[in-house]
Design a protein that fits this description.
four-stranded antiparallel sheet, 7 strands, alpha+beta, 147 residues
């Protein structure tokens, strides 16, 4: 017999269950939810730990969800990172696939891109504009006929 309730706990179980309210029709949201813009370092912070995210979504908004066992990051409904939750402090958790994707994106960025316009490399002589706007006459050289 417990002194404070003056009964055995096993005898009080039925009374406690009868006093409980029914569960809600929709389960309550549990865990931690946040929406952030993914920075250039492609990591999101949960508590004091940093978790890597697929670098293809850098600069876009991602939804970060964390519960007791895991951390999940989604972009427009698509999972871009899933990690086991780490409870130690100040840790960096990195997926090797995210590092490889970042390396590929970095290499692609550093490569010169061929121009889509074949005439882009052509440069027009600035005196053509001076003639078009009447700053110089058509027959003179450079600065001799400047108005």
């Amino acid at each position: 017999v417990v002194r404070t309730i003056r009964a055995r706990p096993v005898d009080r179980v039925d009374a406690d269950r009868a006093a409980m309210l029914p569960l809600p029709p929709v389960p309550p949201a549990v865990g931690w939810v946040n929406r952030v813009r993914l920075g250039r370092d492609y990591y999101v912070r949960v508590d004091s730990n940093d978790y890597s995210v697929d670098p293809t979504v850098i600069g876009r908004f991602v939804d970060v969800t964390a519960d007791l066992s895991g951390v999940e990051v989604r972009h427009e409904g698509r999972v871009v990172a899933a990690h086991d939750r780490v409870w130690a402090r100040s840790q960096t958790i990195t997926d090797p696939a995210h590092v490889a994707a970042a390396r590929t994106l970095r290499e692609q960025f550093q490569q010169p891109r061929p121009s889509a316009d074949p005439h882009e490399e052509l440069a027009r002589d600035l005196t053509d504009y001076d003639r078009a706007f009447g700053v110089i006459d058509g027959g003179g050289r450079g600065g001799e006929d400047v108005a």
